[in-house]
């Protein structure tokens, strides 16, 4: 099983997976945009949960990760917790996930940067100002979207490993020379990035439109969210952070 999975990792198959993840992320954006900003969700002073200090969103994410860790989520090398500190072990039988990644850089986790980007940069673009009291639902929408974004960005490790295996002779001298810029240049495909950005904006426009049985009205109604938020997310953060993961991974690929 593990072996068969390993055999299907090619740059083309990983890119197909990245394309499918776009759907999850765009739906996640739509789901979060359903709620207004609901700032109490993020206010450390609001929740006042006995035995817990922090915001409601932290409470929801930490507790969800705690349950999901026990249910085995983080035994999969594609999954990365936002709060890895003090997570309980899995309580379920282990599955032989493919050990495709190089052991050292396999542990890279940039969720702290993703968390910061999400709350400082993305959320103000996505959520309209207002308060409808649905703080728990808002935090649940944040959790799914954060997990989808994190999964896509950390997928960069698999992309980097495939790129390395396809051309070790090109990567090895740059890695040995710790040439960060050289590695970045070698792994970059500007035409692919351009295609990703354009497709994401198109998908966001299509998925975000109201659908009616009168086909003349499709696309003319109000939108569920601003589709340029999705393309800006990809251009400004998703692609740059995926590339950051790829560079960090490759620089430690020979350790
Ligand atoms: O498709 C790749 O080669 C990737 O590494 C993914 C990705 C992206 O984030 O979409 C990142 C870097 C490349 O320049 C192109 C696209």
What is the structure about, briefly put?
By secondary structure, this protein is mainly α. The chain has eleven helices and no strands. The structure holds prephenic acid.
Explain this structure to me?
The chain is mainly α and 255 residues long. Helix content is 61%, strand content 0%. The chain has one domain: Chorismate mutase, AroQ class superfamily, eukaryotic (Chorismate Mutase, subunit A, Orthogonal Bundle). The chain is built from eleven helices and no strands. The two termini are 28 Å apart. The mean pLDDT is 94. The protein binds prephenic acid.
Characteristic key phrases:
mainly alpha; binds prephenic acid; 11 helices; globular; single chain; Chorismate Mutase, subunit A; 255 residues
Low-confidence stretches: none
Bound compounds, each kind once, are: prephenic acid
Largest sheet: none
What is the CATH class? Mainly Alpha
| Reported CATH architecture | Orthogonal Bundle
- CATH superfamily label: Chorismate mutase, AroQ class superfamily, eukaryotic
Helix content: 55-70%
In terms of quaternary structure, the protein is single chain
Strand content: under 5%
Radius of gyration: 20 Å
How would you classify the helix and strand content by structural class? mainly alpha
Here the CATH topology equals: Chorismate Mutase, subunit A
In DSSP terms (H or I, runs of 4 or more residues), the helix count works out at 11
Strands, count: 0
Taken together, the total number of domains comes to: 1
Mean pLDDT: 94
Based on Cα principal axes, name the global outline: globular
For the termini, the CA-CA separation is 28 Å
H/E order of the elements? HHHHHHHHHHH
């Amino acid at each position: 099983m593990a072996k068969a999975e390993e055999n299907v990792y090619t740059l083309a198959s990983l890119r197909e997976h990245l394309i499918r993840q776009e759907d999850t992320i765009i739906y996640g954006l739509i789901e979060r945009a359903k709620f207004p900003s609901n700032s109490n969700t993020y206010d450390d002073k609001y929740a006042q949960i006995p035995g817990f200090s922090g915001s409601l969103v932290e409470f929801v994410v930490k507790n969800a990760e705690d349950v999901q860790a026990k249910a085995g989520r983080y035994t999969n090398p594609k999954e990365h917790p936002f709060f890895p500190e003090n997570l309980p072990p899995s309580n379920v039988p282990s599955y032989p996930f493919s050990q495709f990644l190089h052991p050292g850089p396999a542990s890279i986790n940039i969720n702290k940067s993703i968390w910061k980007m999400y709350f400082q940069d993305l959320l103000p673009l996505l959520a309209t100002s207002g308060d409808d009291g649905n703080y728990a639902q808002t935090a649940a929408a944040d959790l799914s979207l954060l997990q989808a974004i994190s999964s896509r960005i950390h997928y960069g490790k698999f992309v980097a490993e495939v790129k390395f295996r396809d051309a070790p002779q090109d990567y090895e001298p740059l890695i040995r020379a710790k040439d960060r810029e050289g590695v970045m240049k070698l792994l970059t495909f500007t035409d692919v990035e351009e295609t990703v950005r354009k497709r994401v904006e198109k998908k966001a426009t299509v998925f975000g439109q109201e659908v009616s049985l009168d086909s003349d009205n499709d696309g003319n109604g109000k939108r569920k969210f601003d589709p340029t938020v999705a393309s800006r997310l990809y251009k400004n953060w998703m692609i740059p952070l995926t590339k950051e993961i790829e560079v960090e991974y490759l620089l430690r690929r020979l350790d």
